Amino acid sequence: MRTYVPSGDRAEELSKGNNWFVVDANGKVLGRLATRVARLLIGKDKPEFTPHLDCGDHVVVINAAKIVLTGRKLEQKVYRTHSGYPGGLKETGVKKRLAERPDEVVREAILGMLPKNKLRAHRAKKLRIYVDAKGLERHAAQKPQPLAV
Hints:
Elements: H1 9-14, E1 20-24, H2 30-42, E2 58-62, H3 73-76, E3 78-82, E4 89-93, H4 94-100, H5 102-111, H6 120-124, E5 127-129, E6 145-146
Parallel strand pairs: 1-2, 1-6, 2-5
Antiparallel strand pairs: 3-4
């Protein structure tokens, strides 16, 4: 059995990612939402999936402020950043980060599930996250299809 490898015009057609999906994060568990969205960005669910091409779709996530964390993650989960200087470690709890920038919590969870390769930045550009449902108005022309997670 031979493996099909798209090239030329067919490869360009696959890498356009012309489908748009909207995902409502209201009451959804963060990790389960992130895995589903990451699969859409990668294009894993498509029959013509090719690992070296970006054949994923565009995804719009709305109501990021209403995401749910299970267990004791609200008290225990910590985000760490380091400036590179001695004593430059900063720690922020997920409860504080959800109150200030809930879209960043969702973005970091989704991008953390993408493969760490050269296509990652291009796939990340196909992700749009909005704190409430008002952001969906910007993408009315793309006619995004609602996706149940």
